[in-house]
Amino acid sequence: MKPANFEYFRATSIDHACELLSVHGDDAKILAGGQSLIAAMNYRLARPQVLIDISNIDNPSEITDEINGIRVKATTTQAVAEHDPVVRDRLPMLVDALEHIAHFQIRNKGTVGGSIVNADPASELPAMSLLLDAEYEIQSASNKHVMAAEDFFITYMTTALQSDEVLVSILFKEPPKNCGWALHEVARRAGDYALVGSAAIIALDDDGKCAYARVVLFGVASTPVRAKEVEELLVGQICSDELFEEAAKRVSEVVDAESDVHVTDEYRGNVAEVLTVRSLADALSRTQTAS
Amino acid sequence: MVDKQKIHLTVNGTAYDREIEPRTLLSDFIRHHLDLTGTHVGCEHGICGSCTILMDGLPVRSCLTFALQAEGKAIETIESLDTNGELSPLQNAFWENQGLQCGFCTPGILMSMKAFLEDNPKPTRDEIREALSGNLCRCTGYHDIVDSVVAAAEAALSSGTAKA
Amino acid sequence: MKKPIEIAGVTKHIGVPRKRSEDPQILMGQAKYVDDIKLPGTLEVAFFRSTHAHARIKKLKLDGAKKHPDCIHIFTNEEFSAGATTFFPNTRGTLHPVLMPFFAHGKVRFVGEIIAAVVAPSRYIAEDIVDLIEVEYATLPAYNDVEDAMQPDAVLIHEDLESNVYYADSFSNGDVDKAFSEADLVVSEKITTGRTSAAPMETRGVMATWGWDDTLTVWSSTQMPYPLRTSIAVNLGISEQTIRVVAPTVGGGFGQKAHFFPEEFILPWIAKEIKQPVKWIEDRREHLLSASHAKQCTIYMNIAFMKDGTMVGMKIKNIGDSGAYSQYPWSGLIESVAANNGAPGAFTVPNISFETVVCLTNKMSTGAYRGVGWSAGCYAREMVMTKAARLLDLDIIEIYRKNFIRHDEFPYTTSTNQTYDSGDYHKVLEKCMEMSDYEDTKKQPRSTKDGKLRGVGIAFFVEQTNWGSRSAEESGFPATLHDTTTVEMDPTGKVTVRSGQFSHGQGLKTTLAQVAAETLGVPFDDVVVLDGDTATGAYGMGTFASRSAVIGGGSVIRAATDVRNKLLTIAAHVMEANAADLEIDEGKIYVKGSPDRSMTVAEIAYITYYDRFTRPDEDEVEPTLTATRHYDPPAAYANGSHAIHIELDPQTGKVDIKRIVAVEDCGNMINPKVVDGQMRGGASQGLGMGLLESLDYDESGQLKNASFMDFMIPNATTLPDIECAHIVTPSPYTEGGFKGAGEAAMLSVHIALSNALVDALSEYDGPLVPMVTPIGPQQVMDLINNTNQPQAR
Predict the structure, then answer these.
(1) How high is the ipTM of this complex?
(2) Among A142, C159, C290, C732, which one is most buried in terms of CB atoms within 10 A?
(3) Measured between alpha carbons, how far is residue A92 from residues A17, A82, A106, A175, C649 in Å?
(4) d(CA A93, nearest CA chain B) in Å
(5) A177 CB-near residues (< 8 Å, 6+ apart)
């Protein structure tokens, strides 16, 4: 199918993009990598009347080291982020997640920001945002503000971003230096959207007890979800397979899955639990090699 | 009616200036405005990979790119691989190893593998399969394509060139 | 039946795994598929297709669309019906045709059915205009499942029929009831196979132009250019002599493009109406919705066993899901009738009865796709056999060996009256077992050390090949299906093979040239094969049903032999030798034993055309070096075996395929490398059917997965390398001893996969045997969760 017509503007900067958005508002969509948007437009499921292209602003791919994490410009391609030495050094779990996104041809054009704003609950970057306590820098013609990732995802493919706002950059916060991490997902073929996914980070204190735990699930609800109920059972405890299995049962409290052509909601719930146990176990074994 | 917009880009080393509707996909631009029909369209939603071309050296889906997004960029398509009808070592490896049957997916695979081999000159069969996973083929079952890529890698190494 | 010709060639070209001559053009991006062919002034067509699965069209509003400034024409049934007749009747005389109209009128019966055709300067604009068309529908209940559509109170999809079941037939041989009553074990199961699409990478496409000389040229991505030409002539009332159909390079077909679709008639009709070239290129969404579907059957399979594994009887009911129409030309019977007639497979089952029922539903019609009917039918039989094996505490191998037709029993006529020409099933099975380490793997524990379960599965198939008339008839389709080939040598001694066969990936330009080169005794590079264009080929039914090696190759052998004999007769006169003493090899004609007494083929050819003084008297020997011969072969049955190793994650249901072994016996092979390619490609499609592919419709008849995102076909990580081996038992009856090879894997690979799954789960309470395809993680977990035992880990 071919897309419907639209007016096209090439933004020279984010400020320029915001100006254009303030004029065209609800009729306009931001075009970055286009790997989700153009597919939807080719199917005529999306028909924006105006496209504001931000993929060619100055230095679209930019990654900077900050004290508490790494700041990624929203227009950074997934491929650049995946291969960036700073990201590989400080946020290896983000690299792992990026490597799961589709295929390298898609990642050469798809952007970190685009995937986040697309907000597919089965995709990795929104989930990693929750896992890494990300903060989103958001800008409009009249305003700049920062929003925590946990407030950003409203429901399926829907975020708190207003029609005149642009996601500018993402700060992924670095977890404790001695942490271990893991990501597990089930997909029917390499590169497919996850049917279910789970990511975990664990850090131990000097007594070997869990001092820090983050568990995030994707593909199990209308947004990615952080399983605080699971985390609570872990903090302060000695980690073990039994503890993980007990804690993982609590994913049922955050899972609100749907059935689709591939698997049922029950499958998603059951496998979310299984993958959480695996993520926690692998995260734990990675702490032991890290320390 | 939407006004046409100007585009300037380079394809296979030749510069082009055209005026196009903004919604013109890069795949259609290459195939129908420039008459380079070697790049194929198999799905128009970025999954099959038949439309893969190189944009500034990186393999991307031309069906998920508006031509205007390629402004100022250097595009390479399958037509750039041979030299006046002489197959490149990569193309030759596919010929020797029956890495194609109907050939429809082949251009996208060649462009993807060209880039892949430049970054990974000594891939294992599993790494090749992983890299191929973004190009669907319905005819070959992939085995002979993997053989072809292995052969291309070996040919490049033995001839001392990194480029396939 | 004539005895096959003994090919006299000295230098062997047949059997050489040479690389393909068609490849360089494709590799350089120069090969032209339908959408690559440019005619100045071509307009594009987009179809307005039904968005309802079953509805009356109350009102069709075109004014808004017609007002679009770039709208050139909109055609519907109103304009079109004036110029066309109906389709040919189907090949089975007793069958009610249930034909798909070119444009829907009054009623739509599946989502995707054509209601209108918009002609515009570009596809982009045509789609804008399609968006402006409005329809008022009065919806009717839509049927997704044959067993719902068969209910007595079901709404009729075709109101001129009495039921949504438009075909019902039965067959019986032997005493099935007695066999069942005396059996030690009867296993009865209901098996349902998913609906899939061949999904070649190139979708369909048609371009048509009406010439200044009142000729029609049609390009179509088709497997059957000649029959399409004839059908267009008959249906559009245009004389066939003025029609040229060209299948340019075709990007895969797999049987799906061996049909006649409305678009292939509408586009030529429009070209004639408006006297401008028009083109329609199918997009992938249209393709999944409205290119023929395949493989969906509901099969009740009952097999009676003795406790030693002997199969004594089979009782089958196969309900084929025809979709909304009976797809032309094979009809909606193509799955179920073929399946039932091939039900015994490799086995000597003496007592068999089957019922064949074909029922309409509100989906695109079902057509042929590689392994037609047999994929589903064999799966049903084999899953029941696998279950029986587990219940009888036997390996499936033992049931195979017990029931195989033996090597010395060929030619063997099965209980469904199919006559298998040759084979050595035991040998093929052994080979597969040995290559796959089957027995050793079975001795290992099922659990691996990282918590997975390992499994190995094996399957065996007999594939009916070369659909000429006899194979088709043995499958239940009384059709006339011969092809012709013309072989010509020109004055420079070069050879042109004009074929009615046509490649869509099989490398026929290479393989047919190999056959011609060896038969004639000329170098391979001196042969050119022209195919796909009705202006330059020869009349043939097309390439499908694993027929091109035998029928294409066979008719080449016959025609080339005629030319060879003529050449030798002329050479004998010129060289003053006996024709029987002459040999031709690689373009040289020489006296056997005195190779210095020689002339070249080129010299003799030149003399034939241009030197009446040297060639024999033209009243004795016609100075022509051309021959056209037909071939309608006897049926030939290939066979083979697959083994698959898997690892299964019992907590997620994810299956990883670790090894695939494929053994094939397709008689003599023209090009073993090409055969390997067919084995590997077929395995991938078979695994797609077994593991991934299902077109999922909801209750209102909407297709939920009309994109490659959710209709999943295998990618390069879905399957590993496919280790291939060949056993050769030539056909004693076909030219060249060839048998077909294309469909094999689709009769077996998905069975081997399920058997591997059964093996992996063999330590659970069961037996756990899947009775569905495809088997995704959900279906694996469903199998596992039906057990009472705690999960093994």
Answers:
(1) 0.97
(2) C290
(3) 32, 9, 20, 11, 26
(4) 20
(5) none
Among all residues of chain A, which has the CA nearest to that of C282? Answer: A1
Distance CA A290, CA A286 (A): 6
The residue among C617, C486, C496 whose CA lies nearest residue C556 is C486
Structural domains of chain A, count = 3
- pLDDT tens, position by position, C523-572: 999 999 999 999 999 999 999 989 999 999 999 999 999 999 999 999 99
Note the pLDDT tens digit of each residue in A152-162. Answer: 999 999 999 99
Give me the residues paired with residue C488 across strands.
Answer: C496, C626
In one-letter notation, the amino acid at residue A238 is: I
What chain C residue is nearest to B94 in terms of C-alpha separation? C27
Same domain, A191 and A237: yes
Q: What is the CATH number of the domain that holds A251?
A: 3.30.390.50
What would the two tokens of residue A252 be?
A: 């049922």
CA triple B40-B41-B46, angle to 5 deg: 120
Q: How far apart are CA A213 and CA B67, in angstroms?
A: 46
Domain span holding position A73: 63-173
Question: Which domains are delineated in chain C?
Answer: 23-31+482-631 (3.30.365.10)
Q: Which two tokens stand for residue A249?
A: 């049962």
What are the pLDDT digits (tens) for A153-192? Answer: 999 999 999 999 999 999 999 999 999 999 999 999 999 9
Q: How many CB atoms lie within 10 A of CB A249?
A: 14
Is the pLDDT at A287 greater than 70? The verdict is yes
Three-state SS sequence of C242-268: HEEEECCCCCCCCCCCCCCCCHHHHHH
Pairwise CB contact (< 8 Å): B102 & C202: yes
Query: Pairing between strand C495-499 and C527-530?
Result: parallel
Please list every residue in chain A whose beta carbon sits closer than 8 Å to the beta carbon of residue B68: 8, 10, 53
CA distance A185 to chain B (A): 16
**Residue C744 forms contact with B (CB below 8 Å):** no
- Where does a domain end: B54, B80, B106? B80
Establish if A35 belongs to a structural domain: yes
Q: In this complex, which of A8, A43, A109 lies closest to B45 when CB atoms are compared? A: A43
Check whether residue A69 and residue A161 sit in a common domain.
Answer: yes
Closest CB to B139 among C252, C716, C721: C252
Segment (H or E) for A225: strand A225-226
pLDDT in the model for residue C99: 85
Interchain proximity B23–A3, CB inside 8 Å: yes
Position A1 in a domain: no
The answer to whether residues B75 and B9 belong to one domain is: yes
Domain that holds residue B118: 89-158
| Test mutation, C715, C718, C723, chain B, max B CBs within 10 A | C715
Q: Does A1 touch chain B (CB under 8 A)?
A: yes
Last residue of a domain, one of A122, A156, A173: A173
Q: Let me know whether A49 and A75 are in one domain.
A: no
CA distance A267 to C488: 64
In this predicted structure, what is the pLDDT of residue A25?
A: 82
Number of domains in chain B: 2
Q: How many other C-beta atoms lie within 10 A of the C-beta of residue C406? A: 12
Per-residue model confidence as pLDDT tens digits over C408-446 = 999 999 999 999 999 999 999 999 999 999 999 999 999
Q: Which of C24, C679, C713 sits opposite B138 (nearest CB)?
A: C713
Chain C residues whose CB is inside 8 A of the A193 CB are: 709
Instruction: From B134, C721, C713, C712, select the one nearest A100 (Cα to Cα).
Output: B134
* 3-state SS, residue A151: helix
User: Strands B58-61 and C73-75, how do they pair?
Assistant: unpaired
How far apart are the two ends of chain A, measured CA to CA in Å? Answer: 54
pTM above threshold 0.95: yes
3-state secondary structure of C557: helix
